[in-house]
Design goal:
WD40_rpt; Thrombin, subunit H; WD40_repeat_dom_sf; WD repeat; repeat; 2 domains; globular; Guanine nucleotide-binding protein subunit beta-like protein; Methylamine Dehydrogenase, Chain H; single chain
């Protein structure tokens, strides 16, 4: 189910019909054109019009496994999706065609696209991060630490830093330019469960992570510490 929320009221503003789709695992939103691109459990991607709630079609040929992450460069008409089959696909949204980006061999768990330079970063469950040049569909840098279970990531394209999260709620900060691991933030101060999603305010250097099983953790990246946790019993953050 896809729901549109009013953040000021803290209420669901609209529920979009599923149009017979399988479960939604991830999405990217074009707020100017009021449309969304969703990654589905059946390996397809679906486009929705947020105002009319109408289906705008599906991208059917590509993934053999559930789509776990998606990011879009709406102005360029491209999207990047990753799935549990290890496939990373670069889509032409107008034509509905895709090009494979070869490199990952296991579950692709995160993607992010730089809308200006046509670069992208992807991460997989084995802890590998890859920097891609999308025009040539080539990997230009690989980053890997001594840990596994990368489950989410977000990129600051202005500074060239990546924050990844995974097993035990731990966070890792990377520098894309040098490929260097900058900092590790242990998950022991947070929920102590795998970080499944992450968002960052790069100005204040604060991050928020969500865990399966319920709960959010707010982090101070400069102090490498958890500021506080929010949890409601019986509910999952993702």
């Amino acid at each position: 189910t896809l729901r549109l929320w009013d953040l000021e009221r803290g209420a669901c503003a609209e529920t979009l019909p599923d149009h017979g789709s399988s479960g939604i695992n991830c999405l990217a939103v074009d707020w100017s054109a009021r449309r969304s691109l969703c990654g589905l459990a059946d390996g397809m991607l679906a486009l929705w019009d947020l105002d009319s709630t109408a289906s705008l079609g599906r991208l059917r040929r590509g993934h053999a496994g559930p789509v776990q992450c998606v990011a879009a460069d709406w102005a360029a008409g491209h999207a990047l999706s990753g799935s549990t089959d290890g496939a990373l696909l670069l889509w032409n949204l107008e034509l509905g065609t895709a090009v494979s980006l070869h490199g990952h061999v296991v579950w692709v768990s995160g993607v992010d696209v730089d809308r200006g330079s046509r670069y992208a970063v992807s991460g997989s469950i084995d802890g590998v991060l890859r920097l891609w040049e999308l025009r040539s569909a080539t990997c230009v840098r690989t980053l890997q630490g001594e840990w596994n279970e990368l489950k989410c990531m977000v990129v600051n394209w202005g500074t060239g830093q990546v924050l990844s999260g995974g097993a035990g709620g731990a966070l890792h900060l990377w520098d894309l330019g040098s490929g260097r691991h900058i900092e590790a933030v242990p998950g022991s101060g947070g929920l102590r469960r795998d970080a499944q999603c992450v968002a960052v305010d790069w100005t204040t250097r604060c991050a928020i992570t969500g865990a399966i099983g319920g709960g959010l953790a707010v982090w101070d990246l400069d102090r490498s510490s958890c500021l506080h946790t929010l949890q409601q019993e019986g509910e999952s953050a993702v």
